[in-house]
């Protein structure tokens, strides 16, 4: 699963934003794919093992077991702050926040919104990320910085159609 997810992403991001030889790019793609796959496999093994151990020790499975097993697995496997782990954690965080907000409505902790709050969320997220990009760029994750630089700065220079299709930053003086 990790290879299925990471390989296409690494391929696109590498060819869009990284310089170097074809061999270096392919090596980078393979390393990112391997790291993502290995970490997911290690996490699943750790999580499932800890779940089984807790159920065996307590004689039954209880809901807290999944939380504790995942916390330990997350610490052990994803605790190293590197680009692969960082991206996985950011991906999960966004989905956790959505899930928690839906759960809060479901449980009655917050009222059901009268209208869809998504347009407001979209506005706040985009407003905040572009403010951070313009005023505090160093606080953003490096691949997000690269994407935003490509979209909002590199796009101000136009040579020909290859800028749009391949990459719009030339090293030669055309």
UniProtKB/TrEMBL annotation:
Q: Write down the Pfam families for this protein, in alphabetical order.
A: Tim17
Which domain of life, per UniProt? Eukaryota
| GO cellular component, as recorded | peroxisomal membrane
Q: What is this protein called?
A: PXMP4 protein
